[in-house]
Design a protein that fits this description.
Layout (H helix, E strand, L loop, with lengths): L2 E5 L2 E5 L10 H20 L6 H12 L7 E6 L4 E6 L4 E9 L2 E10 L5 H31 L10 H18 L3 E8 L2 H8 L1 H18 L5 E6 L2 E7 L3 H16 L3 E2 L4 E2 L3 E7 L6 H17 L5 E3 L9
Parallel strand pairs: 12-13
Antiparallel strand pairs: 1-2, 2-5, 3-4, 3-6, 5-6, 7-9, 7-12, 8-9, 10-11
Helix pairs in contact: 1-2, 1-3, 2-3, 5-6, 6-7
Amino acid sequence: MEHQLSSEAAKLSLVSKLGHAVDVTDQQALYENAEDIAARLPAVLQTSLELEDIISLFHKEMSKALAYDSLHYQHRGVHCDVNFGQRSHHSCNYRLEMNSYWLGELTLTRRKKFTDTDTQLLEDFLCKLIYPVRNCLLFREAQAAALQDKLTGLNNRAAYDASLKREIDLAHRQHAPMSLIVLDIDHFKAVNDTYGHISGDVALRALAKSITNTMRLSDIAFRYGGEEFTLILSNTDATAARLVAERIRIAVSQLSCNDGKRTFGFTVSLGVAQLNQGENGSSLFDRADQALYQAKKSGRNQTLCSDTPISKDN
């Protein structure tokens, strides 16, 4: 059985089959408080823009008005999965949507079947949840956009600075290896001058896609600026990082780009540096960038590594 519920621009779809509970004595006391709880719920849900916090607050308030064994919220698009309690046999599931904007899916379960009164109460509460959830999702989108390079879809310079500091701090705490790859397109000015800036953009997007397809799942790629890109490789020493860099170099050399008028290819040069004990991000980048400079100076289309990391103890 499916029900459709409209509340201003909101749309909630009840997709589970519902029945009637045999005993609702314990629920009656909760019903009596539901109106007060519903009245304060909007204010409660305005205290955060973190999606997980909003779902937690909703569960905390909802459980005071309706007896259930578990609550599960999921939004695969933003990798959000929140669970409370242990799942039981009977469930009701809601797909939340507003003006075709997907807000996720929420499921409640319990041992007893949900009554019509239960579902009406739940739907009243959900109408107060959808706007805070939408605001949280819009906030996440804004945060993600601020850290993404619009041309290539990779992380941008701001994301690089934050990620590098985090990964270096983690590597130092865990005494684990970490490496950085810096690369850029060989003779990129010639690509722009020969084929035009539109073709240059095509090359940058193709390079970003090749990097993404070639790097490991644990690696993080960034467009550092212009035609220069960086990759942070956690738990990776210089030898392993050089292998990753070489795979990228070879993959890029086999690319065939087309700007709608002509087909062209290009190569990249790469520099690799492994984090030294106690080293900061600026020093690590400078060493990888210097290795990149030497790769270009000695012929391009190659990977060179910085000096072997030296321990402070030596």
